[in-house]
Design brief:
Radius of gyration: 32 Å
Shape: flat
Number of strands: 0
Helix content: 55-70%
């Protein structure tokens, strides 16, 4: 069997060198080390290296946009490393690699290609190794042999010159002295780390052909379609509109106008119990429209049914708005959390999804259009979430609306602030200044502030765990504290999550009680 010659070995060699360099960088940065902005720095090096050696990435618009998105997410990881940021970075850089070989079709099919990219990509290094052993160059030498012959002189020559400079430069000698390898066995974990990193990196340089070449059917929602008589659809929409009108009327009366609720029901109870249920209702409504009223169906062609659908979707949007208002009222009565901020964003996405579903029905758009529109909006929200500090936002709001500082909220939840970690530093300093007239609370706040500040300073003292976001926090916090910040009172037995000192254990209390004086010993006569 004749194997076609590799006409561009330099491209493969460049990819291999860059991928191995990135794998070695991953071992140096992450093996048994704390991680901070180094995750973003590695992601940035990966994206830049891929852009340099993969030439089609500079010519294809889709791949170029995707690699720019990967660089953006790399900077968000430098600011604050997190699972969401890394997932979006991997999606962007994998998409950039695939877009050099296949155009973007729709979000649903692209998700399938990304899954195949992961599944088959892990086998790509083995396939390339096998192929390179069989392919021969013009001189009859295997490609691997040619690669060794290309790298031999620069590697050996570079090692000789580095050794000579180490003998002439004490700084270089000292650097090499710090690199200690006790035995060849100790190098095995590093080799494993490099191999695993290479397996993860290499598919982005050379995607598996199945990820881009395998045909995938166009996105379709036909599997969700149900054949329901037109009369049943019309009657259902009339019933649903009537029920939704009653719910919206009650929301308009009690929630939007502020009228008093009957009985012992409070506004907080009314707001909290309904927010997530209404969102579930809106999602079911969207599913109903997708399954029963697909474009071109007999029901969708009837003007009366289309009018009922428009009215029903409008009522669903009113429900979404009421859900958002319920959540805001509940936050106003209690507290704000990162989860509630995410819930508000999710409610907004549900509302946008309903509008897109209605527009698809009225304008006869394809399923791919609907999927891409929802995917785009979800991607924008997730990308914004990488750059927004939800923990700090919630902590600031809770401090400024706490009952202890004259706000309308509940008592400040110091345990929740402590759980936010570095995000709570500036809010705690702000709270410390606002409760100066409450000595017990002030002592607890100071204790938590000292703990959070110590954690940040410890993390920032190591360049591997340093983050850009913590650096900005310290730039704000340290001037607020001044050169000699007040310290909390000693707590020899530790403190609870809210800063309350633990009471001494019973055995410690017993030890502090003065022991009774022993009676003098007397000796009896024998």
């Amino acid at each position: 069997m004749t194997i076609r010659r590799n006409t561009r070995p330099a491209s493969f060699t460049a990819k291999l060198v860059v991928a191995l360099a990135l794998a070695a960088l991953a071992d140096w940065l992450f093996y048994r080390q704390y991680s901070g902005a180094t995750i973003g720095a590695f992601a940035l090096a990966w994206a830049v290296g891929l852009f340099i050696v993969v030439r089609p990435m500079r010519r294809r618009w889709g791949a170029f946009v995707a690699i720019l998105a990967a660089i953006f997410f790399a900077f968000t990881l430098i600011d604050y490393p997190g699972l969401l940021g890394w997932s979006l970075f991997w999606t962007a850089i994998s998409s950039a690699a695939l877009l050099t070989r296949h155009r973007f079709d729709d979000a649903l099919r692209w998700v399938q290609r990304l899954l195949m990219h992961v599944s088959f990509g892990l086998l790509r290094p083995l396939g390339d190794l096998h192929r390179r052993l069989r392919v021969r160059g013009p001189d009859g030498m295997p490609s691997i042999g040619r690669l060794v012959s290309i790298l031999a002189l620069p590697v050996i020559g570079g090692a000789v010159f580095v050794a000579l400079f180490a003998g002439a430069n004490p700084l270089i000698a000292d650097l090499f002295a710090r690199v200690q390898i006790d035995s060849p066995v100790s190098a095995i974990p590093h080799l494993v780390m490099v191999a695993l990193a290479f397996l993860a990196i290499w598919p982005s340089f050379r995607p598996h052909p199945r990820a881009t070449g395998m045909p995938i059917g166009a996105a379709s929602l036909g599997g969700l379609a149900l054949r329901i008589p037109v009369a049943s659809v019309a009657l259902s929409l009339i019933t649903f509109n009537a029920i939704f009108a009653a719910q919206n009327a009650m929301d308009a009366l009690f929630l939007w106008s502020g009228a008093p609720l009957p009985g012992t029901i409070t506004m907080a109870d009314y707001a909290h119990r309904g927010a997530y249920s209404l969102i579930a209702t809106a999602l079911l409504a969207g599913l109903f429209v997708l399954t029963v009223l697909r474009p071109g169906s007999e029901s969708a062609k009837r003007p009366a049914i289309r009018l009922l659908v428009v009215l029903w979707v409008a009522q669903n949007l009113m429900l979404v708005a009421s859900s958002i208002l319920r959540t805001l009222d509940y936050v106003d009565s209690y507290s704000l959390t990162g989860f509630r901020i995410a819930a508000l964003a999710w409610m907004g996405l549900v509302g946008v999804g309903l509008v897109l579903i209605l527009w698809r029905l009225l304008r006869g758009k394809s399923a791919a259009w609907l999927i891409n529109g929802n995917a785009l909006m979800a991607g924008l929200v997730l990308a914004a979430s990488c750059a927004i500090d939800f923990g700090a936002t919630a902590a600031h709001w809770n401090v400024r609306h706490a009952r202890e500082v004259g706000g309308r909220g509940v008592e400040i939840d110091l345990c929740y602030l402590r759980e936010q970690g570095p995000a709570a530093l500036v809010p705690l300093i702000e709270l410390e200044g606002r409760v100066a007239d409450q000595p017990l609370l002030l002592d607890r706040v100071r204790a938590l502030r000292e703990q959070v500040l110590a954690d940040i300073l410890l993390a920032q003292s190591d360049w591997r765990s340093w983050t850009w976001r913590n650096a900005r926090r310290l730039e704000v916090a340290l001037p607020m504290l001044g050169p000699n910040p007040a310290a909390a009172s000693p707590a020899p037995y530790g403190r609870a999550c809210d800063g309350t000192p633990y009471a001494p254990p019973p055995e410690a209390e017993a030890a502090t009680v003065e022991a009774p004086v022993a009676a003098p010993l007397t000796s009896e006569p024998r």
